Amino acid sequence: MAGGGSAIRGSRVGAGPMGEAERGEAAPRQRVVYFCAHAHQSVVTFAVDAQVPDSWDCPRCGLPASQDSENPPPPPKIEPYKTHLAYVKERRSDQEAADILDEAIQLLRERRKRGEVVF
Ligand SMILES: [Zn+2]
Q: Global pTM?
């Protein structure tokens, strides 16, 4: 009786490799940890034969992250905490961006006016 039970188990174990292949879990993978300037740790899973990038955008804050926890890449120069005036003083290209933004706002206002007429 007991012998029959173990025989069934044995057959299941023997069928293992084929079952794993069907589920796709046998494919070798590697886990790479990236660190951003905010000390977030992001674990990204790649296939072993995939080319692992040196940097990865942190999914939590969007900053670039690297595999070197001691030396994460610096955050981009454009930071959302600076005031609009600071941008204008720092760089002319930001002034151009501000002009574009003003145009966009004017367009939006015109659309709103049309909306008011309709209502
Ligand atoms: Zn982050």
A: 0.44
